[in-house]
Design brief:
31% helix; 4 domains; binds adenosine monophosphate; D-amino Acid Aminotransferase, Chain A, domain 1; Dna Ligase, domain 1; alpha+beta; Rossmann fold; binds glycine
Length: 466
């Protein structure tokens, strides 16, 4: 008989549904879920033994929920960054004894872009673009001195820069020259709007193609999963504002079509260097448990550069990986906790996957406002199971089950459709079929994993390298 295991899942968006789906397919364990959720997510409600709504994912309230079920829960998983940064692992482990899969507060590297750049300057300088930190403690906002220092650095880089707030802004805080501002005055306005509440990193604008690298870590070893490509911009052809990610694809191998094996090797080498530096030969590695290295890389003429490091799985990127994980996912969790992770615990099928998100009308600048019905019916998409079996997964994210029995889109990415196939093209066709069968006022990008988009990446990379 399968062994019972109780798992706490701290949920924000479709990523948690993907986790629950993967874990519930375990061959060796009978899994029971205890979900701390932002809202009444219909998928989570259907799968949870116990479910609590904590809209701000407050750490103390999560702790109380775990405490109430401490005899039934074997371990917990946290994916969203906010509770990790606020120390959910430290608090839950200290107060309830339930082991958590996520880094401790000390190792939530994602908390500060300034610290990331400074750390990389020490341990992996080749991953950094040229950068300068503007601290609020050093410059008065609007002062001549600030403007002079900024202008001096802009002269060095010919104004070709990206501006970033120190704190995470869900991929939406970054401003890039030529896209978000086209003159120094516009740049200065953007800069000041961030500087009002945060230190700012000003860095060289990098030209190249992006990849998302994700790795599991048990504190002793870093074991990567295949690379994925996130589509950050709202609209087709990478137009529009940055979003949390409108979709992503994964190829059949560990790297992306515009990369070579040596690019992937370079990513792995860099992340290993960061891990070594963080652990520093000490015994603190365990605090990095989880997915402390979800690294956004830019592949440039001068090799791979790091855009940012997150301390959690990517949304949507982890949804490209979980459905094709060959190893037992519960076993993987135990290995993470016990510190005996090995490459064979994270093996994936050589399949391609495409994730496409459907989002509400007022997301990503598609409409200024939307006052119509927000009801969304997923039953048509679920019915496609008859045609596609396990090759299609539908995961509601920012959706809510209400007392009238219907489900509604809230403000963020509403639902994603994951297609799994022998090629990116096959996977994309399935993903888009899922999207077309969702009934509701939502929109989506149509070019996630499209051959013309991939061909453009391949072409650009070739040009950069020639
Ligand atoms: P981040 O939140 O740092 O991942 O940045 C969000 C997006 O801004 C990235 O996916 C890139 O498209 C863009 N970006 C960030 N940093 C740079 C940079 N130094 N040069 C060019 N684009 C950047
Ligand atoms: N895909 C962007 C993120 O998870 O931050």
């Amino acid at each position: 008989m399968a062994e019972r295991v109780g798992i706490l899942v701290i949920s924000y968006g479709s990523r948690a549904c993907g986790m629950i789906d993967a874990l519930s397919r375990s061959g060796d364990y009978e899994v029971h879920f205890y979900v701390a959720d932002r809202q009444r997510n219909p998928y989570n409600l259907r799968h949870a033994d116990a479910h609590v709504v904590i809209p701000d994912l407050d750490v103390q309230r999560i702790r109380d929920f775990v405490d109430a079920h401490r005899d039934e829960i074997d371990f917990g998983i946290c994916c969203p960054e906010k509770p990790i940064i606020e120390g959910v692992r430290d608090v839950v482990e200290r107060d309830t004894g339930v082991a958590m899969i996520c880094p401790t507060k000390r190792y939530a590297i994602e908390a500060s872009k300034v610290s990331q750049r400074l750390m990389l300057a020490e341990c992996c300088p080749e991953a950094n673009p040229r950068f300068k930190v503007f601290r609020r403690s050093e410059y008065e906002r609007g002062s001549e001195e600030l403007r002079r220092a900024l202008w001096e650095f802009l002269d060095e880089l010919d104004s070709e820069v990206a501006l970033k707030p120190d704190e995470p802004a869900a991929g939406k805080g970054v401003g890039v020259w030529g896209e978000h501002f086209r003159s120094r005055e516009e740049l200065y306005e953007y800069f000041i709007s961030i500087f009002r509440s945060s230190d700012v990193v000003v860095e060289e604008k990098l030209k190249g193609e992006e990849s998302s690298f994700q790795a599991f870590c048990d504190g002793r070893r870093v074991v990567p999963v295949p690379d994925t490509r996130d589509y950050k911009r709202a609209f087709d052809y990478d137009m529009g504002q940055n979003t949390g990610g409108m979709g992503s694809y994964k190829d059949t191998k560990d790297w992306l079509p515009f990369m070579e094996r040596h690019d992937r090797d370079e990513e792995e080498r860099m992340v290993q260097k960061i891990f070594n530096a963080l652990v520093g030969g000490g015994d603190r590695g365990d605090e990095l448990r989880g997915m402390p290295f979800y690294v956004a890389f830019m592949h440039t003429r001068d090799g791979a550069k790091i855009l940012e490091i997150n301390s959690r799985p990517g949304d949507p990127e982890i949804l490209n990986v979980l459905p094709v994980l060959k190893s037992d996912p519960v076993e993987l969790c135990f290995r993470l906790i016990e510190g005996n992770l090995s490459p064979s615990s994270v093996e994936c099928e050589p399949k391609a996957t495409v994730v496409t998100y459907a989002v509400p009308m007022d997301y990503g600048g598609y409409r200024e406002r939307y006052s119509g019905d927000r009801k969304v019916d997923l039953s048509g998409a679920y019915r496609l199971k008859e045609r596609y079996g396990d090759s299609l997964r539908i995961y509601p994210g920012s959706m809510e089950l209400r007392s009238d029995g219907n489900t509604y889109a809230l403000g963020s990415r509403a639902v994603c459709s994951v297609g799994i196939g022998e090629s990116i093209e096959d996977a994309r066709a399935i993903s888009l079929d899922g999207i077309r069968n969702i009934d509701g006022a939502l929109w989506n990008r149509w070019d996630i994993g499209a051959s013309h988009h991939i061909a453009r990446s391949v072409r650009r990379m070739k040009e950069l390298r020639s």
